[in-house]
């Protein structure tokens, strides 16, 4: 048992009343603590006592550690917490010193912690109530630029050759305008390909990958951005990127960024995230 624990990079303990009274589990986890092995406690709890908490030796060993809370045994919560646990394990593991990349700047972690705190969405009707952002449903569809441009060109040609006589009265033109608007929307946006959040950069061919997210007001563009920054902060999305920065365009006003000066991305990031660090 000791060899197995001491050769491990991370120890995950799934805490229940049975786990707590097991002598072998106690020896195993105590060995990990004594050997300075990283411990990730997962709170399964007691189905017959929802208020159950670890006590005695288990409380002492796991004190101050951030639990993965799995008390809710619903399929959705189990999937979410499994992803969280995998991300935590990846984050906890450290390769040998000679293989490690340089540590990221301290402010990277400050930004990550900010995203982790912003883990709930306020309700529109009653902002005093909120729900976990993990329960947010993000429905994305991708339209490739080339395909969209070809359809827009086709619509312009149809528009050029199919307009009614300008001498006709306004009433005769209204049905045409209505059908034109509907046709444009359906022709350009009717054919879409559903895509998962994790895959939105995969079709970008260049070194600099750009994706434009479109949607009417209130449909969830800002929520989507909050959702991806939160998942990145938890290490279960786009972990290949050291830093993910969310800048709200509505804050880039002349009053906050006067004209006559060029602002670099680092200037904007400093003002938005560290306004008092001068």
UniProtKB/TrEMBL annotation:
Pfam families: TIR_2
InterPro entries linked to this entry: P-loop_NTPase (IPR027417), TIR_dom (IPR000157), Toll_tir_struct_dom_sf (IPR035897)
Lineage start: Eukaryota, Metazoa, Spiralia, Gnathifera, Rotifera
Annotated region described as Disordered, given as residue ranges: 148-177
Biological process, per Gene Ontology: signal transduction
Domain TIR: 1-73
Name assigned to this protein: TIR domain-containing protein
SUPFAM superfamilies: Toll/Interleukin receptor TIR domain
Superkingdom classification of source: Eukaryota
Compositional bias annotation for Basic and acidic residues: 148-174
